[in-house]
Design goal:
The complex is a heterodimer of chains A (about 500) and B (about 375). With about 500 residues, chain A is of the alpha+beta class. Chain A contains 18 helices and twelve strands. In chain A, the strands form three sheets. A five-stranded antiparallel sheet of chain A has the order 1-2-4-5-3, with helices on both faces. A five-stranded antiparallel sheet of chain A has the order 6-7-9-10-8, sandwiched between helices. In chain A, β6 and β7 form a beta hairpin. In chain A, α13 packs across α15 and α15 packs antiparallel against α16. Chain B has about 375 residues and is α/β, with parallel strands linked by helices. Classes of the chains: A alpha+beta (about 500), B alpha/beta (about 375).
């Protein structure tokens, strides 16, 4: 229990005995009412009810229990039973007899009602806590297609997935993460489609986690991914059920974490972050067009501002004659060199974006208007920036939002700054050098030990038709090679 | 060490690039057009100095002047560049050069030294246009044309448009250099002339090596195009005069023509060259008696046009041979018909005037409009 030692060292000098988790010798203790109550001492949300005439005690945490189920499973049978029949009632299969105290406490924490009778302890899980209802995802909205999305309850999320994959082959392994929080983490895979090596590797990584708490799927991703020091996200997370299920059937594995609407899928490639469920719900030509648009947006967002800086600082020869005079004219009033001008504007856009992201919608609009006017007009009129830079910065900002994955789009916005600085120092040479460095870095990355640049490196041409374009469904006959599925063919339809 | 090596490599790449030569846009003066002339030295009349003018577009939003013209007289081009740089607060750069103009004076004494300087400078495009000015190039460039505030751009676009219309060949630094080094063709360049309020294309300059020899008159330019190259979108205006009759005026556009040059050996080893052009075009204007909807009449007109074209073409070939300039590139075809060994023994300049050249051609009117 590393983490606790560290906590104690950092915190109080004298460790408080209550902070200590259950000592090993307590494991074999038989569950007793008094002992259980003692464990939950000072827990105001613990409910202790008893039927003294029948010698039955119920202990549970009130807000975890579904009222309806409580009435059906506890109130009705036990109120109606005569004291002699209690043992018979408890013999029903839904009441599990619990042998040791630790399990019982854990069951209570999981939403079970503990029943003490005649020196024995039983538990029945009636967990039905309040959760957010199933809503539309705000971060991954689509126009066509299903609108339900995951919420913070793992049970709901599993049910959403199970409802879409009606197969006993869909296996769900339950793991726990967080030494204090004991958060449930489920690893989902379809036997016969998923490669078990990936499943084992993922389970191993999750089991190796030793932190006090993990609060979100996006946080879990960073703990289990291959290269935590890379800018790029290695596993995509999604809030959309359809997208999660499509990954499951592609032979990838899912990780569902309780308390987080973000479901992790693995392994993944860089290019997967540029596809959206929308691509599949529209005619294939439109889907293809959108895919190409997104990769164009990637190039625009990475290179536009940097190219402006490089060209205006070093390569006046590259500018077409007609553009040259307008560009010079708009630059002539600007007091800074292009690189400072560009960094200033990029920074302002990032400020605006960050401010807008945290504020409620109503104030966010104000920010948008103020930012639009301040940046769009005043900065140019005041001679702080040139018109053309505004266009470059704005179009690269817009292009960055075309990328469907928020995490990926944020990573790309960050590396843009490096490119701008390199372009300011070395011109197009610097731009090309940084692009080369990015590609070198990308090719070194792995996602669950498979290449992050699949299907480009290693080159798998058969996958290209579902990565760079969205080919018609009759052409998409095999699962992606990255998932190394034992069952490769997914579409056997003839015409 | 393991970490220092890649860092050192990155630092080397960054430093060895030597990118200290920043050229920030607003501190540059882009030379758009350059003109070269020879002028007599004031003190020593026999000596000739170089007059260089450059046209620099200005981007000052408040200023009325859209451009600045700098000129200097110097011994050499390098000297001139230094002199010119002293006249402006901005850094003179030639990476946006579009056209270079040579006055007749300098064209007569050879322009290769100056064209070569353009080829050498890596920042100058190979697409810079070369033109000869009938008169003083510096004056043409320095003059203000009220309707065309930016003279450099005006000249560039004029040449570009004329080349698109195929009335003058598109001659860039690349073309000039290629034709200069090729021993089977002589270089050409469009001629510009200063008008009162504008600049006009005034013929085609014919070079021998890099020396201006003679010119093609403006009305003969389409014929030259037909003989020299394939034309994609040309225009022809022809007056056909028959003795005792009124002249027929014919205007043909959307011309597509193909030129074929065939070289064969005669019985005594001499070369027989046949230049054949096939012209197809749309009849746009016709002032004459023939009825175009009648096939026989149309054939008749086609014949007359062909005859007129051939007459001009023969005259042109004769003129070229008289001046011993092979602007049509016949030498290339002759060279291709023999071995290199044989070609290197041949004195082309001596052979060319005596060559048996025959021009044949045909003209087809493919369309004559809706109204007959």
């Amino acid at each position: 229990m590393n983490i606790f030692r560290r906590m104690n060292r950092a915190g109080n000098k004298k460790p408080e005995p209550e902070m200590r988790p259950a000592a090993p010798e307590e494991q074999d203790v038989k569950p007793e009412l008094s002992h259980t109550l003692n464990e939950f001492k000072d827990c105001a949300d613990l409910v202790h009810q008893s039927l003294p005439d029948k010698g039955v005690h119920f202990i549970f945490i009130g807000h975890l229990i579904g009222l309806e189920a409580f009435a059906r499973e506890i109130t009705v049978p036990f109120e109606n039973a005569s004291p002699d029949d209690i043992a018979q009632v408890l013999g029903r299969s839904q009441y599990r007899e619990i042998g040791d105290s630790k399990t019982l406490i854990k069951d209570i924490l999981d939403g079970s009602v503990a029943i003490f009778h005649d020196g024995r302890a039983y538990a029945i899980n009636l967990c039905k806590p309040e959760t957010r209802s199933i809503q539309q995802s705000e971060t991954e909205a689509v126009i066509n297609g299903p609108h339900d999305s995951f919420n913070e309850s793992a049970i709901t999320n599993l049910s959403l997935i199970r409802r879409r994959v009606k197969s006993a082959q869909l296996k769900i392994a339950r793991l726990e993460v967080g030494e204090v929080t004991k958060t449930e983490v489920y690893v989902l895979y379809i036997v016969g489609i998923a490669n078990m090596e990936y499943v084992n590797e993922m389970s191993r990584r999750i089991q190796n986690i030793e932190v006090d708490a993990v609060h979100d799927g996006n946080m879990l991703v960073q703990i289990i991914d291959d290269q935590p020091n890379s800018v790029f996200p290695l596993f995509p997370t999604t809030e959309r059920v359809d997208s999660a299920v499509s990954r499951l059937t592609a032979g990838r594995i899912l990780v569902v974490m309780d308390g987080s609407p973000s479901v992790i899928s693995a392994p993944a490639s860089f290019f997967e972050f540029f596809s959206s469920p929308d691509d599949y719900y529209q005619r294939w030509m439109l889907g293809t067009g959108l895919r190409i648009l997104r990769f164009a947006a990637l190039i625009v967002t990475i290179t536009f501002t940097a190219l402006y800086v490089a060209v205006t600082t070093f390569h006046y020869e590259m500018i077409p004659e007609d553009l040259l005079l307008t560009l010079t004219e708009s630059r002539s009033k600007v007091p800074f060199p292009p690189i400072y001008e560009a960094l200033l504007m990029e920074l302002t856009i990032e400020l605006l974006r960050e401010a807008g992201a945290r504020l409620p919608t109503k104030i966010g609009q104000t920010i948008g208007i103020v930012g639009g006017i301040v940046i769009g007009q005043a900065a140019v009129q005041a001679g702080l920036t040139s018109n053309i830079l505004i266009i470059a910065v704005a179009s690269s900002a817009i292009a960055s939002f075309v990328i469907p994955s928020y995490v990926m789009s944020a990573s790309i916005r960050l590396i843009r700054f490096g490119l701008i600085i390199m372009s300011g120092m070395l011109g197009v040479l610097g731009l090309m050098m940084s692009l080369a460095l990015i590609i070198i870095h990308l090719s070194g990355l792995t996602s669950l030990k498979s290449s992050y640049l699949t299907p480009v490196a290693p080159n798998k041409l058969s996958d290209w038709k579902d990565i760079f374009v969205r080919a018609p469904f009759w052409m998409l006959r095999t699962r992606p090679t990255q998932s190394k599925s034992p069952n490769k063919v997914k579409n056997k339809m003839r015409e | 060490m393991g970490k220092i090596k890649p860092l050192a490599a990155a630092a080397l790449i960054a430093l060895l690039a030597g990118c200290g030569d920043q050229r920030v846009l607003e501190s540059l003066a882009f030379v758009n057009a350059t003109s070269y002339d020879l002028v007599q030295d004031k003190e020593d009349g026999a000596k000739e100095n170089l007059l260089i003018c450059i046209d620099v577009p200005k981007s000052d939003p408040e200023g009325k002047m859209k451009r600045e013209v700098l000129s200097t007289v110097a011994r050499s081009k390098k000297d001139a560049h230094l002199q010119l740089a002293k006249q402006t607060e901005l850094m003179l750069v030639s990476g946006q050069l579009r056209s270079s103009l040579f006055g007749l004076s300098i064209a007569r004494s050879g322009i290769w030294n100056y064209v070569r300087a353009l080829v050498r400078d890596p920042s100058i495009s190979q697409n810079v246009k070369v033109a000869v000015v009938n008169g003083n190039a510096g004056e043409l460039l320095a003059k203000r044309y009220p309707e065309h505030p930016m003279t450099g751009q005006y000249i560039d676009r004029l040449l570009e448009k004329e080349a698109d219309k195929m009335s003058v060949p598109r001659v860039t630094v690349y073309d000039f250099t290629r034709d200069f080094y090729d021993d089977g063709i002589d270089a050409v360049a469009p001629i510009l002339k200063q008008g009162k309020k504008n600049i006009e294309v005034n013929g085609i300059a014919l070079f021998d090596q890099d020396r201006y020899i003679t010119r093609i008159e403006p009305d003969q330019m389409p014929i030259f195009a037909l003989l020299r190259q394939n034309v994609k979108n040309g225009e022809l205006s022809i007056d056909i005069k028959k003795s005792g009759e009124e002249a027929e005026q014919i205007m043909i556009n959307s011309i597509v023509s193909r030129r074929k040059v065939k070289v064969r050996r005669g019985e005594n080893g001499n070369f027989i060259v046949n230049i054949h052009f096939r012209v197809m075009g749309t009849l746009r204007e016709y002032l004459g008696d023939l009825d175009m909807s009648d096939d026989r009449h149309r054939r008749e007109l086609e014949k007359r046009v062909t005859a007129s074209l051939l007459k001009d073409a023969d005259a042109m070939v004769a003129m070229l041979r008289k001046h011993n300039v092979d602007s049509l590139g016949i030498g290339k075809r002759v060279r291709n018909s023999m071995s290199y060994k044989e070609w290197s023994k041949t004195d082309w300049n001596a052979v060319y005037p005596k060559l048996d050249i025959k021009v044949t051609g045909e003209m087809i009117i493919k369309d004559f409009g809706k109204v007959y």
